[in-house]
Design brief:
Blueprint (H helix, E strand, L loop, with lengths): L3 E4 L3 H14 L11 H7 L11 E9 L5 E10 H7 L3 E9 L3 H17 L4 E4 L11 E4 L16 H7 L3 E12 L5 H14 L2 E2 L5 H20 L10 H11 L8 E5 L5 E9 L2 H7 L7 H10 L3 E9 L9 H14 L4 E3 L3 E2 L3 H7 L4 E13 L1
């Protein structure tokens, strides 16, 4: 098979780029298709504020009959590189048929791009920002990923390793069983709240939540996530992108915002009903019926995905997470939620893992990021 690598330079090419994994995994019962229109927006500079600090190119691998057999993105996050003092080129959105020749050609193209841009290291799969899908699945091939994870075939890792890449870091995912009795956390939340002058924020709806607390939530996020691998501080425009992406789907019973006596945000937890099965039914498209499956999943579900949780450093290790668990836990019990999916978190993020450690839980998925010195 003769492989050619073609750069994506127009909208038609981008559609093929976005659609390829939905074709590659067609019929796979564990694969969760992403909404293609949303992926198009993410990869379009005019529609993604990440391009304030990033640049990128996309390539398709084609066989001798013109069929797409692989894809990859090359990304440089200049803000993150400046922060860590390294010249890193990221690769992301990597998918390919079971062919070492295809994998090699894709990674070689990113390495060529990296060298041309003066980079010293290639690392991935990683997206533009921390909130893009990262990692190659290496454990949990018999599990359905969250809407914010990604499924891939087992052959990905050995083929990437064969190209000279080694492990950089892992993301892990836990499945947590919701306890029948959360009264302990309700009592503890009252004690901790009184001790440190903290309470659950008051808001009557999503609009008031956004108006009063969203800026504080992003401020806490930037401060707490700054030390994490791959994270660069979010700009106001990037925060707006995330706000527009998630706010419409939020159920206020699954959100906790903790404030001090001055109504300043000191911590938060954001969870969302699982959309994995709904996205499988949608098959990559919101219309004509995909949005109906998503709306149904938001209203009736037995699983929620834990998207974001953060507590300011000065309040960590003081039991403040009990306030978050108390609020969201009551919402889960009211709505019949039985399980929580932790979504991908860094393997050494012990602050978050300590929260799950108090509940019945098990690690059931692991995804890996690789690195190669040029």
């Amino acid at each position: 098979m003769t492989i050619s690598i073609k750069e994506v330079t127009d909208k038609r090419g981008l559609r093929r780029f976005v659609h390829f994994p939905n074709e590659l995994y067609k019929g796979n019962k564990y694969y969760v298709p992403q909404i293609e229109s949303m992926d198009m927006d993410t990869l379009t500079p005019a529609k993604n504020k990440a391009f304030e600090v990033c640049e990128g190119k996309y390539w398709l691998a084609m066989d001798d009959k013109g069929k797409v057999v692989g894809r990859i993105a090359g990304i440089i996050n200049h803000k993150y590189n400046k922060k860590v003092g390294q010249k890193i080129c990221r690769f992301g959105w990597i998918d390919f048929i079971e062919s070492q020749e295809v994998a090699s050609a894709l990674l070689a193209k990113v390495e060529e791009y990296a060298e041309n841009q003066g980079m010293d290291v290639v690392e991935g799969p990683v997206g533009f920002l921390e909130f893009d899908v990262a990692g190659v699945l290496v454990e949990g091939y018999d599990q359905i990923p969250t809407a914010y994870g990604k499924y891939n075939y087992p052959y990905y890792e050995p083929m990437i390793l064969k190209e000279g890449y080694v492990k950089s870091t892992d993301f892990v995912e836990y499945r947590i069983t919701v306890p029948d009795d959360i009264s302990r956390y309700i009592r503890l939340s009252k004690v901790i709240g009184e001790r440190y002058g903290l309470k659950e924020a008051k808001y009557s709806g999503k609009k008031e939540l956004v108006r009063k607390y969203v800026d504080g939530i992003f401020d806490v996020m930037n401060k707490c996530y700054s030390p994490l691998h791959g994270f660069s501080e979010l700009s106001p425009a990037q925060c707006d992108d995330l706000k527009n992406q998630f706010i419409g789907n939020l159920n206020l019973e699954f959100i906790s915002v903790i404030v001090d006596n001055n109504d300043k945000v000191v911590g938060f937890g954001i969870t969302l009903p699982s959309l994995s099965l709904a996205l499988q039914k949608a098959k990559g498209h919101l219309f004509p019926f995909g949005f109906i499956h998503i709306l149904h999943a938001l209203r009736k579900n037995d699983t929620i995905d834990a998207l974001l949780i953060a507590i300011l450093p000065e309040y960590q290790d003081k039991g403040v997470n009990a306030l978050i668990v108390s609020k969201i836990g009551q919402g889960m019990q009211k709505n019949g939620i039985k399980y929580v999916e932790s979504t991908r978190e860094l393997e050494d993020n012990h602050n978050v893992q300590n929260i799950w450690g108090r509940f019945e839980h098990h690690l059931h998925k692991r995804a890996r990021v690789y690195i190669k010195q040029l």
